[in-house]
């Protein structure tokens, strides 16, 4: 899927908000500046968050809960994680039980953490804009349709 600009990335995130359920994990991969946080902001805004969601780069985990958002969401940025063992301290297993997890830089913890996740990858393309690709797990197949 092509995302020609920031507005398209926000709109894709907003569309994704209509599909997510408690317990879902959505991973967001891509280089610095690819649009991972922008996509997450679109999703959070569509779930009711007023104002712009901060990047969780320094907090690592930023949570949102009703009435701030329609569903509890944990926006996670693993960029500063250097060892997968550090993830235990973040409580991601507990959060995944009763939140939607949006995880930037999932590769920092390895593939085993994200077996059932909807895996999204955003890449800049030479002609401008971004290309989004998805690895859709069985739990998403009935909800997912190419956009």
- For the record, give the distance between the C-alpha atoms at the N and C termini, rounded to a whole number: 7 Å
CATH-derived topology: Rossmann fold
Please state roughly what percent of the residues sit in beta strands, choosing from under 5%, 5-15%, 15-25%, 25-35%, 35-45% or over 45%. Answer: 15-25%
Oligomer type: single chain
| Spatial strand sequence of the major β-sheet | 1-7-6-2-5-4-3
**CATH H-level superfamily title:** P-loop containing nucleotide triphosphate hydrolases
Q: What gross morphology would you assign?
A: globular
Average pLDDT, rounded to a whole number, is 90
Keywords: ATP-binding, Cytoplasm, Magnesium, Metal-binding, Nucleotide-binding, tRNA processing
Subcellular location: Cytoplasm
InterPro entries: P-loop_NTPase (IPR027417), T6A_TsaE (IPR003442)
Family: Belongs to the TsaE family.
Put the structure in a nutshell:
The chain is 23% helix and 23% strand. The chain has 147 residues and is an alpha/beta fold.
Could you describe the 3D structure shown?
By secondary structure, the chain is of the alpha/beta class. The chain has a single domain, classed as 3-Layer(aba) Sandwich (Rossmann fold). It has four helices and seven strands; from the N terminus they run βαβαββααβββ. A seven-stranded mixed beta sheet has the order 1-7-6-2-5-4-3, with helices on both faces. β6 and β7 form a beta hairpin. The longest helix is centred in the first third of the chain and has 12 residues.
